[in-house]
Amino acid sequence: MSTSPRVVIIGAGIVGANLADELSTRGWTNITVVEQGPLTLAGGSTSHAPGLVFQTNASKAMTEFASYTVDKLLSLSDSGVSCFNQVGGLEVATTPGRLEDLKRKLGYAASWGVEGRLIDPDECAKHYPLLNREKVLGGLYVPSDGLASAARAVGLLIAKASAAGVTFRGSTPVTGIEQTGGKVTGVETPDGVIPADIVVSCAGFWGPKIGAMVGMSVPLLPLAHQYVKTTSVPELVGRNDASRLLDPANGAWMPILRHQDKDLYYREHGDRMGIGSYAHKPMPVDLRELPEVAAADMSEHRMPSRLAFTEEDFLPSWEDSKELLPALAGAGIADGFNGIFSFTPDGGPLVGESKEVEGFFVAEAVWVTHSAGVARAVAELLIEGQSRIPLHECEVSRFEEIQTAESYVSETSQQNFVEIYDVLHPLQPRVSPRELRVSPFNARQKELGAFFLEAQGWERPHWFEANRGLLEILPEEWRAPEREPWAAMFHSPISAAEAWKTRTAVALYDMTPLKRLEVSGPGAEALLQRLSAGKVDKKPGAVTYCLLLNGDGGIRSDITVARLDETTFQVGANGNIDFAYLTTEARKQTAGDVTQWVQVRDITGSTCCVGLWGRSPAKSWPR
């Protein structure tokens, strides 16, 4: 008999099915997966996903998630054919700016262990004969990229996990989440309550609806994205050997292709071409207005996540496609739809536990590309207490409260859709929304010519034009090296002069945007002693700089702890992830011993902070 906790996974798409498999492989089998649609075709994003897997990402974690997904899908097979067609991936540049960006992307690939190379136009045409050779300046080729058969993978994962003891219940909508004393206890369905110690929402773009059942804000916006299949392309006829393919209509022999200068991507479907477009205006979706499709009526062309095709939005992309791939001139648009999937304010997934309700986790806004990798990370989080791949970029708690407001999520998610293939600098500031959070010194900073960048909704000065005169007396050894145009964006040599004065004289810094938490109560000292590497049991007025730790001693963050009185501390934290962690641990400590209760409050918005740095004239500080 299994001794694992009772786990309910909401959603049997590519993430939920992978999570059930990852947990059961590790010995947790007391698992029920509930899916509102039929298990054979659930009707979510997985059911219509085109399956392109480009692994390379500026984020190491996202690249590792994608690479694990490739390996796992290769291992899943039916009749000797895996769920991944490793045809390779090709991203082409038709502008000099894109070509430079592909060089940077190759650097990411090399850093994260993904084999790739830059190739010239001739080699691009060799890999992809349909290309207009004259349009292409070069490309990035990654041989291990390819096509995922997402729906078929889900079927095999369900069969595998079922054999291990996992229960799957299709056509079972979730109507509520039961909880007692701040902990989940069950999942409500029309057929009754399923008892649970842990609930994981893998509901995709339905995630906000599930999160609302426990009062959790899930900052995610469902958006429609256009995808079409052409009629038969003469140059593709006969190229895919139907006798070797489990699904001849979706076979491919050329690499998956991105034409990011026009917000387009391509894959083969046998002798037809599939085209995905981000070139149209954002199309946000209201979940309340989605069509209800009975399980018996669900089909490839009729499902809740597949909306009517708006051909007028696609026609400019059709012309761009024929220009890049002239062979399409002999074909037409046979089928198109606007398919729903998830976007977030920063474009990343949402993974982690609710800070208010123990045992309620989410794994949302995860695309097929990263599905198995994220599922493995969540399984490790549940069983081992933390993922072996750091999750800070994906933590659902990473957003400030202002960033979870419906208006903020809507505007920023739509902007991420617009910019998804744009060449963006790492410091590229948001244009809107801005001026959401400013320090009390903002007006004076503007008078001094501050150049502001935005982070977590805060306006943060990066240098001051008022200090430009320092460049005239800046010692040569402090001068910043010349930068090429890309590196020089959002940078000023004034920063070097300001650093020089900080180290050799004195400087004042506005630290108001940094997170400040009040930790109070009779158990405050015990909590901070347990969670940090510092000795915080000092007299009031003392400040301790230390590390914030995981339960196994691993480092989560670095913090400052100022003791204000016997039961009150002020913590200088790095962001909302630290706030969520301390809140969760305080809740657990209080539940375990009410005499050691702790309260954690975010006091950032009601306070300000000024930092004073410099060199003492009395002695030389170590550098």
Description:
With 623 residues, the chain is α+β, with helices and mostly antiparallel strands. 26% of the residues lie in helices and 26% in strands. The protein is built from 15 helices and 33 strands. Strand 13 (183-189) and strand 14 (192-195) form a beta hairpin. Helix 3 packs across helix 9. The longest helix is centred in the first third of the chain and has 17 residues, at 96-112. The model has no long low-confidence stretch (mean pLDDT 94).
Secondary structure blueprint with pairings:
Elements: E1 7-10, H1 14-25, E2 31-34, H2 45-48, E3 52-53, H3 60-75, E4 77-78, E5 81-82, E6 84-85, E7 89-93, H4 96-112, E8 117-119, H5 121-127, E9 138-142, E10 146-148, H6 150-163, E11 167-169, E12 176-180, E13 183-189, E14 192-195, E15 198-201, H7 207-212, E16 221-230, E17 256-259, E18 264-269, E19 272-277, E20 283-284, E21 306-307, H8 311-324, E22 333-343, E23 350-353, E24 360-364, H9 371-384, H10 406-419, H11 442-447, E25 450-455, E26 458-464, H12 485-488, H13 494-504, E27 506-510, E28 515-520, H14 524-531, E29 543-549, E30 555-565, E31 568-573, H15 576-592, E32 599-602, E33 610-614
Parallel strand pairs: 1-2, 1-15, 2-11, 7-17, 15-24
Antiparallel strand pairs: 3-10, 4-5, 6-10, 7-9, 8-9, 12-13, 13-14, 16-19, 16-20, 16-22, 17-18, 18-19, 21-22, 23-24, 25-26, 27-33, 28-31, 28-32, 29-30, 30-31
Uncertain regions spanning at least 5 consecutive residues: none
Mean pLDDT level: 94
In terms of DSSP E residues, the strand content is 25-35%
CATH fold title of the largest domain = D-Amino Acid Oxidase, Chain A, domain 2
